Amino acid sequence: MRQVCVVGVGMTRFGKYLDKEPRWLAEEAVYKAVTDAGINHKAIEVAYVGNVAAGAFCKQGFTIFGEIMLAPIGLGGIPITSVSNACASASAAFREAVLAVASGHHDVALALGVEKMQLDRAELMMDERRRSKVMGMGGNGADAELEGQFGISFPGFFGMAANRHMKLYGTTPEHLAMVSVKNRKNAAKNPYAQFQKPVTMSEVLEARMVAYPLTFLMCCPTTDGAAAAIVMSKEKAAKMCSKPVEVAASVLKTATFEPSQNDLDTMRPTIHAGQEAYRQAGIGPADVDVALVHDCFSISELIHYEDLGFCKKGEAKTMIEKGETEIGGRIPVNPCGGLLSKGHPVGATGVAQVCEVTWHLRGEAGERQVEGAKIGMTHTLGGLSHAEGVACGVNILRRAW
């Protein structure tokens, strides 16, 4: 297997785009990535497109979503594969692009994530079935055969996880609010973030309750956006790129669906994917300089600290208290603002994380730059079943110069 490098990245600002079709978001992200790589778009030999909501939100069949996004912008005729893996869709698309180059089948590959989640009121009222898919997450990303039928929702599940974490380890709503405050402060320095206004502890704690103890400002928003990354062999990248970023590990793990005594405070796919990624990269958690983790809810970020090995079980609250995950801390987490503040266009998030880590490793992250970053991690966790996530993507990137 050949070594692979990221040579170009690009993304839209995340937000609400009622006036734009998904392919316009895709075009902006791909154009920026191609420009960043310094290549002609015709050099791209294969593409993988992450998306989740096309069928529910965009009135178009998902099976040809990738072709619909890329053919009109000059990338027709090449192999294009659409990838749907819940919140891990873009991470899975990125991994496929990496494998296509690593295997030697292709020299230049594109990973694209694009999602249009916002619909205006008229569109929602036109189709009650689509409206139910948008507004009720159970049965969509959750287990439709059992938990989904009984009304499980993502806020409800993570509210239960937060309560369990609080009972087991003494975590408090204040610790959850600290995550939201940190990430919004970081997003204020990120021109790509959906929300760029800092919030206070009291604002987070006093916001509308969604699923106790999670308030509105402890939950990620619905978001539109796209992100793209171009990868090529390390040998080829060294000849045309001054700051190539090596893909040291790209891992996708799924739940085993085995009976367990899971206490809601652990996501085993995250543990398994993290451990495999560390093994592939030949590093440990202490070697990570910057991490992008899947903070769909504030409790999620704390659980991921523990499952990824940044601290022992039950010690996440201490990490956030001491500021260890702040920019400038022991291991900065979500310096972009995370899903909570940068936004979460589900099928685009994983590639957007790759963009952010790439900028940090190159020293191009502006005010939010993690100084001296040489190794970065991305993490996404998608779906729910058997009291944990279903699919987890972890990538480790490092400077190659």
From TrEMBL:
<dbReference type="InterPro" id="IPR002155">
    <property type="entry name" value="Thiolase"/>
</dbReference>
<dbReference type="GO" id="GO:0006869">
    <property type="term" value="P:lipid transport"/>
</dbReference>
<dbReference type="InterPro" id="IPR020613">
    <property type="entry name" value="Thiolase_CS"/>
</dbReference>
<dbReference type="GO" id="GO:0003988">
    <property type="term" value="F:acetyl-CoA C-acyltransferase activity"/>
</dbReference>
<dbReference type="Pfam" id="PF22691">
    <property type="entry name" value="Thiolase_C_1"/>
</dbReference>
<keyword id="KW-0808">Transferase</keyword>
<keyword id="KW-0445">Lipid transport</keyword>
<dbReference type="Pfam" id="PF00108">
    <property type="entry name" value="Thiolase_N"/>
</dbReference>
<dbReference type="GO" id="GO:0008289">
    <property type="term" value="F:lipid binding"/>
</dbReference>
<feature type="domain" description="Thiolase C-terminal">
    <location>
        <begin position="262"/>
        <end position="390"/>
    </location>
</feature>
<dbReference type="InterPro" id="IPR020616">
    <property type="entry name" value="Thiolase_N"/>
</dbReference>
<protein>
    <recommendedName>
        <fullName>propanoyl-CoA C-acyltransferase</fullName>
        <ecNumber>2.3.1.176</ecNumber>
    </recommendedName>
</protein>
<dbReference type="InterPro" id="IPR055140">
    <property type="entry name" value="Thiolase_C_2"/>
</dbReference>
<keyword id="KW-0813">Transport</keyword>
<keyword id="KW-0446">Lipid-binding</keyword>
<feature type="domain" description="Thiolase N-terminal">
    <location>
        <begin position="4"/>
        <end position="234"/>
    </location>
</feature>
<dbReference type="InterPro" id="IPR016039">
    <property type="entry name" value="Thiolase-like"/>
</dbReference>
